């Protein structure tokens, strides 16, 4: 029977006299004694396991190391597709304005006009949400431009959305420059639970990359804004994104330590990597090997883990694939992805007429689907991989390019799993 077969989603390796077994169906990771490791190493995927010792079979069954692989793959596809069509939760990215006060050289956005939402559009958004009768909860991400330029609209629309009776939560992606004491106090009333702010280094480096449109500095003002948020809106979890490239990579750890000391470890700092997602051109990009090397260096030299060494659940699939997900522009226009905001050619509809470009809408939901990709389906990491960025997958498919959206762990799974093992051992010693 297939249920008694050694799963192809098992992965065995040994390092420094430690014998390890990873299974991607259950995302389990276990250390084995030498005898068990040697015994399992002799098995091929699909091989009968009925003659294994009972204790080893019991362990394998617990982590799905003995499984009907075909059934498990179909089950994963069913669960993911069901999630895509779950209308009980609305995920909205709302752009109250396309205006921005910064002039960042790597910005992917197309339009920094002064387009700002009106009261009429606010009310239409409310009606649009009401039309989703199956919705029971809602998550809003405030985006831009720079959303705080239109903070009055954020406040007004937030109050209208919170009055709808849905379970409500929000986050905001902002450059952080426009926060003052009054804004911080008012934000704390709007159920904004998370805020992402970007710093690209310490003062000199940051100000050379993320300056005002008139060339003015921004670093000191952003740090001041973060202090105000910690004082007057302490419930908001702030994450500092650092766009890593060849110019500032060696400065990351200095900034990390500065923020940790300045805010007593209560603000997280994480690296990100700028990309050429909109084909507008970006220089100094990190390739996959450099991203991997950066992650490993952060662990080896500083004991820090940012780019997770351990696989994540497929349930984290990008919301772009889900039916009840919308990116709404300041004029009520609808986009498939926030990479498209401000690009008229990428508008697929609006909140009044809904679909005006059905083919574009359908492409975001169905094109370059990892659930239909033969390479993805036969991959060891299929059960724990979300297929990478759908936007990038679709763009590459349209350009006829080879897909390269695999998680970094696939490039060298032994290293990543080993570093995860070391992290786990360190946590056990220092709980």
Spatial sequence of strands, sheet with the most strands: 9-8-7-6-5-4-10-11-12-13
Strand content: 15-25%
Overall pLDDT score: 91
Q: What's the story with the biggest beta sheet?
A: 10 strands, mixed
How many helices does DSSP assign? 14
Q: Which series of helices and strands comes N to C?
A: EEEHHHEHEHEHEHHEHEHEEEEHHHH
In helices, the fraction of residues equals 25-40%
Q: Roughly how many Å apart are the termini? A: 43 Å
| pLDDT < 50 runs, ≥5 residues | 276-283
Indicate the structural class: alpha/beta
Shape, principal axes of CA atoms: globular
The number of strands is 13
For this structure, the quaternary state is single chain
- Gyration radius (Cα, Å) is 24 Å
If you had to describe this structure to a student in words, what would you say it looks like?
This protein is α/β, with parallel strands linked by helices. About 2% of the residues have low confidence. The radius of gyration is 24 Å and the shape is globular. Helix 4 packs parallel to helix 5. The two termini are 43 Å apart. The chain has 14 helices and 13 strands. A 10-stranded mixed β-sheet has the order 9-8-7-6-5-4-10-11-12-13. Strands 1-2-3 form a 3-stranded antiparallel β-sheet. The protein has a domain of 66 residues.
Which secondary structure elements does this structure contain, and how are they paired or packed?
Blueprint: E1 10-15, E2 18-23, E3 28-32, H1 34-41, H2 54-62, H3 69-84, E4 89-94, H4 119-130, E5 137-142, H5 151-162, E6 167-173, H6 181-187, E7 192-198, H7 203-209, H8 219-232, E8 237-244, H9 252-262, E9 268-273, H10 288-302, E10 325-328, E11 333-335, E12 347-350, E13 354-355, H11 358-366, H12 374-377, H13 390-399, H14 413-429
Parallel strand pairs: 4-5, 4-10, 5-6, 6-7, 7-8, 8-9
Antiparallel strand pairs: 1-2, 2-3, 10-11, 11-12, 12-13
Helix pairs in contact: 4-5
